[in-house]
Design a protein that fits this description.
Length: 294
């Protein structure tokens, strides 16, 4: 008579019985026993290797599968709205260069310290449209267009660009409060990093929060912080504080879009209305700058 070989043991009787059922289903002779507070499953020696293969297959099939991530719901008109962003920056750059209206656009539009105290709130927006040179402009066109395109796909073109403008203005306002006397700053980079923060926060909460692996859950934030560190924290003329405040403001707005309750309310606003509002705020800021004395 062939001896019996142990192929499985556990303190859980149910686990042992489940595996006994697997062996019974494939016709492998077996016995259940108890040894030192363990439940033990035995099979005859000639069938031991086959039994262990069947149990290994059972273990593999019993491992919980990662739930598939829900597909991204992408919005349309992302390309068109990104081109509108590029057009707005190029147009403002040209008008500033030719001093349209016989005014110094940099003097009346750059971000300055304590602008709220001086009643010059328009600078939080106008400063986003001014650039020191063509290289500065091209950099913000490239990165801003790329991040903005993703944001427009995620939350809709109108909502995305209005949120970007508001986050950039909020970041500039905080920067102006912290800015030292005599310093001025210009450029869309505050809005660019606000866009990065917004996309990262939205993706983190809406699309990867349920991922079983920590690397999947935190990947958007890790990538965003890495980009912030490598592209926004170096350079002689870089306003690091503006980049940080823009990123933080964008992250807050991204979370508002991602949270189900607030996101549902924001989604009720028509995309076209948000887009028109963004354009109106930009035009209104420059109009305010022109009509203000000085």
């Amino acid at each position: 008579m062939d001896p019996y070989i142990e192929v499985y043991r556990s303190r859980d009787q149910g686990a042992c019985e489940h595996r006994a059922f697997v062996l019974r289903a494939v016709g492998i002779e077996h016995l259940l026993g108890v040894q030192d507070e363990y439940f033990v499953l035995y099979v005859v020696e000639p069938l031991a290797y086959r039994a262990m293969d069947e149990l290994a297959w059972y273990e593999q099939e019993s491992v919980p599968k990662e739930p598939p991530q829900a597909p991204l719901e992408l919005h349309g008109f992302a390309t068109g709205s990104t081109l509108a962003y590029a057009f707005a920056l190029v147009l403002c750059g040209y008008l500033a260069g030719v001093q349209f209206g016989q005014r110094d656009w940099f003097e009346m539009g750059a971000l300055t310290p304590h602008l709220t105290r001086d009643g010059e709130g328009w600078r939080t927006i106008t400063a986003l449209t001014l650039h020191a040179d063509i290289g500065h402009l091209l950099g913000n066109l490239a990165f801003g267009g790329l991040f903005g395109y993703f944001a427009a796909q995620l939350i809709g073109s109108g909502s995305a660009w209005l949120s970007i403008l508001l986050a950039g203005a909020l970041g500039n306002w905080v920067d102006s409060v912290l800015m030292s006397e005599g310093r001025v700053t210009i450029g869309a980079s505050t809005a660019v990093f606000a866009t990065l923060g917004m996309v990262a926060a939205y993706a983190l909460l809406r699309h990867t929060a349920g991922a079983p692996r920590w690397a999947h859950r935190w990947a958007p934030l890790v990538v965003a912080v890495a980009l912030l560190a490598f592209t926004g924290a170096s350079g002689e003329r870089t306003d690091v504080v503006a980049h940080l405040t823009g990123f933080a403001a964008g992250a807050v707005i991204g979370l508002l879009h991602a949270i189900r309750s607030t996101g549902a309310l924001l989604e009720k606003i028509p995309q076209w209305l948000s887009g028109v509002t963004a354009c109106t705020l930009l035009l209104g800021a420059w109009t305010w700058a022109f009509v203000s004395p000085g």
